[in-house]
Amino acid sequence: MELSEILTHLGEERENYFNAVAPPIMQTSNFCFNNVQQMREGLTKEFETPFYTRGYNPGVATLRKKIAALEGSEDALVFGSGSAVIAAAVLSCVQGGDHVVCVQKPYSWTHKLLLNMLSRYGVTTTMVDGTDVNNFEAAIRDNTALIYLESPNSLTFELQDLKAVATMARAKGIATICDNSYATPLHQQPIALGVDIVVHSASKYLNGHGDVVAGVLCSTKKRVDAIFASELMTLGGIISPNDAWLMMRGLRTLDIRVKRSTESAEKVVAFLTQHPGVSQINYPFSPQHPQYELAQQQMKAGSGLFSMLLNTNEIKKAEAFCNALECFLLACSWGGYESLLFPVCALYDSQNYDNPDLPWNLVRIYIGLEDPDLLIADLEQALKQL
């Protein structure tokens, strides 16, 4: 199905709501029945028909269809946050005594889930350098149940050869999960490369307006049905009808937003690559990236997110650079209309992070929808602080 048709029309059963162009928000927790037999039948189809919004809501159902079509999967689930969807996906693949192989430096809440929480229940995890497929194979044990991928990583931007890892894992009966938040389904489709489950922090590009926290999961219908019946319904990490509506509204412009953000980022990266105040750029589609060829093989393009190492030995100068920026908001997350800056030096001496295993002069930059020349001029004046 063509992209614009998915974003604009798929799942929009307009004849069911007075031919309104925009679907209504079905803001209800409950759905009622005319008789006991109808209720009995509804109980057997909680994933397919209105019974209780935790299981099925018409607006969420439309959103699920669009997400699955975008990612090229048979079905999808929508959760109330990215961390909720990651937890549900991982829990669906492991049980007590199992072993997980995970890429180094994953999303912080993935790290905490695997090493802090699941370790309480006998699940062990080995972190590996995912840039070499052989590292995954070397880490596999008899009890390995899952390989967790994040390609690219959203801080230092290492990639994994998704097809090679998925092929190796499938031959050994090991499940694979890939966080595809960075690339979006527009630039990378891990399921087409053999990955079993794809997850997204939908708060990023998929929603794209900085006003919704959400997560999505894409896989086969069999896996989605099982995760719905167990992890989603039991833990209840659902999205609200209102947030599902906002996310569907955000999807309408996904193609335009991602294209603009990516094109602007390429201009900004080209400027920063030659600036003496920057010692290294981490961007998969930069020819200087060590995995540039792999990026071109399994991705259609980069996105608006990258990181750089500031060329300074003084943390105060790094802070001065960040504070001097006028067009970038100091904030976490990314993927919206606004350009953002996340400096790793902010994590130092933090009770939550305790000086992370990342260089303090690493700065992550997200390029939003502003004019790229304006952003370049802002970066240029701020880099004088170094």
Describe the overall structure:
Helix content is 37%, strand content 15%. The chain has helices at residues 3-8, 36-43, 58-71, 82-91, 108-117, 133-139, 162-171, 184-187, 221-235, 241-251, 254-273, 292-298, 315-324, 372-383, and strands at 75-79, 99-103, 124-128, 144-150, 175-179, 197-201, 215-219, 278-282, 305-310, 329-330, 340-343, 362-366. Strands 1-7-6-5-4-2-3 form a 7-stranded mixed β-sheet, with helices on both faces. Helix 7 (162-171) links the parallel strand 4 (144-150) and strand 5 (175-179). Helix 3 packs parallel to helix 10 and helix 11 runs parallel beside helix 14 (372-383). The radius of gyration is 22 Å and the shape is globular.
Short descriptors:
seven-stranded mixed sheet; 14 helices; single chain; alpha/beta; five-stranded mixed sheet; globular; 386 residues
Write the layout of secondary structure elements.
Elements: H1 3-8, H2 36-43, H3 58-71, E1 75-79, H4 82-91, E2 99-103, H5 108-117, E3 124-128, H6 133-139, E4 144-150, H7 162-171, E5 175-179, H8 184-187, E6 197-201, E7 215-219, H9 221-235, H10 241-251, H11 254-273, E8 278-282, H12 292-298, E9 305-310, H13 315-324, E10 329-330, E11 340-343, E12 362-366, H14 372-383
Parallel strand pairs: 2-3, 2-4, 4-5, 5-6, 10-11
Antiparallel strand pairs: 1-7, 6-7, 8-9, 9-12, 11-12
Summarize the structure.
The protein is α/β, with parallel strands linked by helices. The chain has 14 helices and 12 strands.
- Name the helicity range: 25-40%
How many individual β-strands? 12
Note the overall shape: globular
The largest β sheet comes out as: 7 strands, mixed
